[in-house]
Amino acid sequence: MTQDIIHFDKVVKRFGDLTVLNNLDFSVKRGEKVSIIGPSGSGKSTVLRILMTLEGIEGGKVTVDDEPLWHEQAADGTLKAASEAHLRKMRAKLGMVFQHFNLFPHMSVMRNITEAPVKVLGLSKAEARQRGEELLDLVGLADQAQKYPGQLSGGQKQRVGIARALAMRPSILLFDEPTSALDPELVGEVLNVIGKLADEHDLTMLLVTHEMRFAREISDRVCFFDRGKIREEGTPEELFTDPSEERTREFLSAVLDG
Amino acid sequence: MTQDIIHFDKVVKRFGDLTVLNNLDFSVKRGEKVSIIGPSGSGKSTVLRILMTLEGIEGGKVTVDDEPLWHEQAADGTLKAASEAHLRKMRAKLGMVFQHFNLFPHMSVMRNITEAPVKVLGLSKAEARQRGEELLDLVGLADQAQKYPGQLSGGQKQRVGIARALAMRPSILLFDEPTSALDPELVGEVLNVIGKLADEHDLTMLLVTHEMRFAREISDRVCFFDRGKIREEGTPEELFTDPSEERTREFLSAVLDG
Amino acid sequence: ASLAEIQESGTVRIAVANEIPYGYVDPTGEALGAGPDVAKAIMETLGVENIEWVTTNFSSLIPGLQADRFDMVAAEMAILPDRCQQVLFSEPNSSYGEGLLVASGNPKDIHAYEDFAQNPDLRVAIMAGADQLEMMQELGVDEANLVTIAANADAISTVSTGRADAYAATSLTASGLASQSDAVEVAGAFTDPIIGGEEVRSWGGFTFASGNEELRDAVNAALADFKQTDAWAETLSGYGFTQADLDGSSARTTEELCASS
Amino acid sequence: MHWTEYFGPLSEGAWVTIQLTGYSTILGAILAFAAGIGRLSPNLGVRSLAIAYIEVFRGTSLLVQLFWLYFALPLAGMAIGVDLRLPPIVAGVLALSLNIGAYGAEVVRGAIQSVHKDQHEAARALNFSPRQTLWNVTIPQAVPEMMPSFGNLAVQNLKDTALVSLISLGDLAFRAEQIRNFTQDSTTIYSMLLVTYFGMALVLTALMRTLEFYAGRWRTARS
Amino acid sequence: MLFGYEWDLSSPLAFAISILPILLTGLVVTIQAATLGFAVALVLGLVWAVLKAVPSPFISWPAKVVTEFIRDTPLLVQLFFLYYVLPEYGIVLPAFMTGALALGIQYSAYTAEVYRGGLEAVGTDQREAARALNLSPARTFTHIIVPQAIPRIIPAMGNYLVSIMKDVPILSVVTVLEVLNVAKIVGDRTFDYLIPLSMVGGIYLILTLVASAGVRLLDSWLPKQGIPLK
Ligand SMILES: Nc1ncnc2c1ncn2[C@@H]1O[C@H](COP(=O)(O)OP(=O)(O)OP(=O)(O)O)[C@@H](O)[C@H]1O
Ligand SMILES: Nc1ncnc2c1ncn2[C@@H]1O[C@H](COP(=O)(O)OP(=O)(O)OP(=O)(O)O)[C@@H](O)[C@H]1O
Ligand SMILES: [Mg+2]
Ligand SMILES: [Mg+2]
């Protein structure tokens, strides 16, 4: 067992003619908190979506927990495309928090959180409900369990989104710009919850964000993506205070001014 | 004939329960260039829209060119609500440039400019076209006459908007935030054209804007609006360098920092 | 149009209901049948060169006349008192008895209209607007067992598929339809219905809009002459009318038929 | 009769169907504009008339309308001493266009209302009269908006023409019935009929698409 | 006399009143045919929608052609086809059944689109969220997609029910005694079409105005986000 819980090995991803990831190498250690920053269209979301198995890959190999994600061992030892059963097994290791929350609007907050644990993990309703209550408490929404998503503010919705992902007990949690669809005054409450998670849990966290100050605070490592490649990476101090690449400097000066 | 071309006398404007203008007194001299500044919702657009007869008033009196705008003299000498014919006559004195340009998307640039002179003023097509060419030249778009608005950039659209308003030969030109829907790099070209107009023509100009530097450059007078009243007015120097009201100071410091 | 207008323009509009052999139009547009053939001869006598044939549903014939969509109907429509109140009839051109079209082999063993009154399980088809409806009602047939079809041509399908057990029509219609398909036949050993103590026989004539007496009188005069000729007898027997039918056609006058009952 | 012999009478019927579709679609479009614009009129009388027309013709069955015009209207005319005996072709075209016009009116109204209020304000600032605004600004922008729905309505109208065969108008469906009358060859005749209508609908759809393209050229003009 | 009811020709009003019960018997048939046809359209439309959504073009393409064909050909001709052609292949349905089937087939082409639109309106983000939570495809469909699609589908379906009702008179050509056919027969017998046909128009107007109002009411009652489960 290696130290890396996530490993991208020369991964290629195309949309039609557009090559979004071009031989990407990238890895994340167990328990590490990694922020991904970079200009729009550079492939940040794509990396998360490949991990969450929402997008397939065209070349290379992705490993999660030392097992290939998009491939599986055939009987004769060669690798073949992953079956749905394999994907389901792998997916259980990951949870994702979406930019637009993607809550189920027809289910109460509690049902949003308990539906998958009951149906997928096979928890009893009582167990799932108890875990749901703990999680709602964690995200500060203990009193909103019976509301519907339509009755919540954006920040509350996103906190439910985080609780829903945690309810599946993933070992890796992916965040795709969790605050960029929020009104500025609601951003803080969501970042607080994420910060608490980062401090208190040994979860591996992979976070795409435009909140530079926040990325700096919580990350062990920051990766700067540009055109489907990692241009530069390092500790937040290295990257934010003394970037070595011209491109990184440009990007940082643009977003920190804006 | 008084000096004032525009005169608001205790004008009241309501939207349902909301009183937007509350006994507003306000006047503009012939040939004067006046900028209106103020926080969002303070009634700036409403003043222009009342002048352009896009909104009626609930009380008081508006005079343009010494004639009541929203009223007319009945046979017995009393004032009654203006007829459509009266409004049409009065409207001919005014032109308006809109925030969102409001060009006619189904007409070429030239037709946008010539349609009203032909249909409303009764110019011949050839006359209208010649005037259109002069105006397009003025706004620097002589070579774009045959394009459709959909093919133009925001700054070009707004310059067509200005040419269209001028084609009706108004004596008063109203601008409602003419640059606030534009990408920052396109603002300059529009302000240039407006500046040129201010310098070279004896047009009366009334301009709602958030471009403080520009307001300062071109205006004879700046009015600070707050909650449907003029809080403070004066020459640009007076108002920008030494506002007497606390509220004005606050507003200016907020917008000049932003 | 009035007689004068028709003779002036040289064109008359005559309707048929697409019933073989009374009056029908073949796919080439040629009108044939007992009604049209006699009408052609009459129009020739009246000096009208041009006939515009109109095909319409049987139930639209009277409304069509009233709405002036045509000048005359040559469908051998039965002369009945009710109808006489709506339109004008010429003197009878033909007479015919009743018949029944049944599925091949006559599986339900039907031989008379009275059978439908006695056996409530039998369903009988009639054409919309045709006089068989009145007969069935007189005989006490349950309304629920009547299947009203829009045109004669639908009868074969209706009967052969069992949607109705028989189609009640004139004997000529029934035999005409039977000759078109192997799936149907004319009910054998048929006894004519007896209504009001008399065997039913129908007299068919030409029909005109009320108020157009001139045209009717002119047609009547020409018809009376034509019925004396061999051509008339040949025409009708060519379409399957029997000698009894031919003889019967002069047994009643329209006045009697309109007044009866 | 061999099935190839059906082509003659069927093509005569098809021509009648095409004419019916053409006339009633054009007349229907005119009615749609009149009623759609009328529904938005500030004049209460005009507006009520338009609403009544739209509701009555959308609310009743086309076949009922057709029968009413053909069978009942002459009697109504007689009762008031006016000759309202419409020839079948007129009754047919009228029923079809009144019906499609009522549906089209809602399309016209929707499209007119979808034109942004900004456009009305710009027109007002340029001193266009309400009528000029309607014809020079609103309608030209609304037309491309209506075209897809009009395309559907035109096909609907083509299909509806089959109903006129029931008032003895010699259209495609009527001719087919006539042939079946003779040959009892239902399978062949109805198959040919279905395919012919389908073909005509495809052509009509293509035609409407072309029209849609031309009506909305300015919308596709992008830099 | 029709269906055991006599009519009274003494005055137009008496005539109208006396034939109202007759027309109402026809109206019952109209409503029955519309309901049955609607049921067929709901089921068959779902079949089309599913077939058209199958990834294999060998299945989806024929389904698309067939529904386009159904949609582009007149109900009247389809009705004739079913009524006269099916028996030649040994399938004899009563006229009423044939009529309801024809209505159902014609409208299935439209309801298929309603299903498709309703399902597609539930965005991909909902599917992705379900996938990220490892919910099975079947469960995603039944518990995530369908409950959110239903409120969009129901009002559109309601409008088609109203349309079907207006097409029922076409069934009169194959001897179904719906309200128009009944009025027509009364007209054939009394030679007065004006009153029966005008009454049918009035009955229809009331029926569709009420039904459309019902659909609008239903629409306003439905939750906009989805039907909450339990
Ligand atoms: N489903 C898709 N089909 C086609 N192109 C896609 C698709 N998804 C993403 N892309 C393209 O792939 C590129 C990378 O997309 P990605 O969403 O990963 O960028 P990103 O770095 O997350 O940008 P942003 O900051 O705007 O979210 C973009 O050019 C995008 O347009
Ligand atoms: N049509 C309307 N109906 C109801 N309220 C309106 C309407 N138009 C404007 N208002 C209200 O009137 C007030 C003044 O509006 P106005 O548009 O004049 O403000 P403004 O000073 O131009 O603001 P901004 O800088 O945001 O354009 C606002 O509170 C606005 O919400
Ligand atoms: Mg992204
Ligand atoms: Mg404003």
Description:
The complex is a heteropentamer, with 2 copies of chain A (about 260 residues), 1 copy of chain C (about 260 residues), 1 copy of chain D (about 220 residues) and 1 copy of chain E (about 230 residues). Chain A has about 260 residues and is α/β, with parallel strands linked by helices. Chain A has 9 helices and 12 strands. Chain A has a single domain, classed as Rossmann fold (3-Layer(aba) Sandwich). In chain A, strands 8-9-10-3-11-12 form a 6-stranded mixed β-sheet, with helices on both faces. In chain A, strands 2-1-4-5 form a 4-stranded antiparallel β-sheet, covered by helices on one side. In chain A, helix 3 packs across helix 4, helix 3 runs parallel beside helix 5 and helix 5 runs parallel beside helix 6. Chain A is globular. Chain D has about 220 residues and is mainly α. Chain D has one domain: MetI-like fold (Orthogonal Bundle). In chain D, helix 3 packs across helix 4. With about 230 residues, chain E is mainly α. The radius of gyration of chain E is 22 Å and the shape is elongated. At the D-E interface, helix 2, helix 3, helix 6, helix 7 and helix 8 of D face helix 2, helix 3, helix 6, helix 7 and helix 8 of E. The structure holds adenosine-5'-triphosphate (2 copies) and magnesium ion (2 copies). One adenosine-5'-triphosphate (ATP) binds next to strand 2 and helix 1 of chain A. Chain D: It is found in: Cell inner membrane; Cell membrane.
CATH top level class name of chain D? Mainly Alpha
End-to-end separation of chain D in angstroms reads 62 Å
Q: What is the total tally of β strands of chain D? A: 0
Domain count of chain D, please report it. 1
Helix content of chain C: 25-40%
How is the main sheet of chain D built? none
Helical segment tally of chain D?
A: 9
Q: Give the low-pLDDT segments of chain C.
A: none
Please report the number of helical segments of chain C.
12
- What's the shape of chain D? flat
What is the correct CATH architecture of chain D? Orthogonal Bundle
Subcellular location (chain D): Cell inner membrane; Cell membrane
Membrane topology (chain D): Multi-pass membrane protein
Domain ABC transmembrane type-1 (chain D): 14-208
InterPro entries (chain D): AA_ABC_transptr_permease_3TM, ArtM/GltK/GlnP/TcyL/YhdX-like, Ectoine_EhuC, MetI-like, MetI-like_sf
Give the gist of this structure:
By secondary structure, chain C is α/β, with parallel strands linked by helices. Helices cover about 35% and strands about 25% of the residues of chain C.
Give the topology.
The complex is a heteropentamer, with 2 copies of chain A (258 residues), 1 copy of chain C (261 residues), 1 copy of chain D (223 residues) and 1 copy of chain E (230 residues).
Chain C lengths: L2 H7 L1 E6 L7 E2 L5 E2 L1 H13 L3 E6 L5 H6 L5 E7 L2 H4 L2 E3 L4 E3 L1 E6 L10 H5 L5 E4 L4 H8 L6 E4 L4 H7 L5 E5 H10 L3 E3 L7 E2 L2 E2 L2 E8 L3 H15 L2 H9 L4 H6 L5 H6 L2
Parallel strand pairs in C: 1-4, 1-5, 9-10, 9-11
Antiparallel strand pairs in C: 2-3, 5-15, 6-15, 7-15, 8-11, 8-12, 13-14
Helix pairs in contact in C: 2-9
Chain D lengths: L6 H33 L4 H16 L2 H19 L7 H27 L2 H9 L4 H31 L11 H12 L2 H30 L1 H4 L3
Chain E lengths: L11 H42 L3 H16 L2 H11 L9 H27 L2 H9 L4 H31 L11 H12 L3 H28 L9
The complex binds adenosine-5'-triphosphate (2 copies) and magnesium ion (2 copies).
